[in-house]
Amino acid sequence: MKRRLLQEALKNIVTQNRAPTESIDVIFGRAQKMPLAGVECDECGVCSKVCPSNAIDTSGEWTIDLGKCLFCWDCRRACTKEAISPVDAPDYAVSREGLIFTKNTPPVKNKDTLDAKKLKAVGRSVFIREVDTGSCNGCEVEVNALSNQFYDSERFGIKIVASPRHADVLLITGPLTKNMYDALMKAAAATPEPKVIIAMGTCAISGGLFSKGEVVGEGIGGTVDVDMYVPGCPPAPDRLIRAMLTAFGLTEQK
Fold it and tell me: Which of 12, 47, 111, 185 has its CA at a distance of 20 to 30 angstroms from the CA of residue 62?
């Protein structure tokens, strides 16, 4: 009797904590939307004036820097010609220039992978140490969600570790405040080579709203060698998983 009750209890626990099957479709099927101007745009400059992070430049041809974009959509609301529309944003870029787009030129689906030497070091599992360099904790909320039962990143071989000495990847958030500079340098030095460094979110990529504050520079790019940029404010867990699986060449394996 006791054995049967124990078996039933264990069965219920496993059933209740199983990751929903629809979460697979969410991870690989949902795209972040970004603002992009169409042919109707005449570079009047209204959108660039209302952009809180100076992500839009209309001094020449209309361009947007996703590394600075907060995805607030103030630009679209301000456009009197309704020239700005939502299009699918790339999940990541392997260069800073890969986040800059001109009007009427939607991004193509990114399939770029990292350096072959680093891909070999990562293998089929990705061990991540997250380093907060002074963020608002928005990105940390999304990173924490990676391990919940819905996203369950460990089923794809993506695992958060407690020490940089155990990590393949440094996932860096925040604008790199002056007080966090030494902490980042120590974490980077403790991570075995060849390590992969990911700038997660607008602040880590460009400094975001804090680029003119008590920070070391505009993002972490001038301090450490960044291998991969994941734009967003903050990037959702599904985008982060999809970006890593694609950039690490693990999509087909998983």
Answer: 111
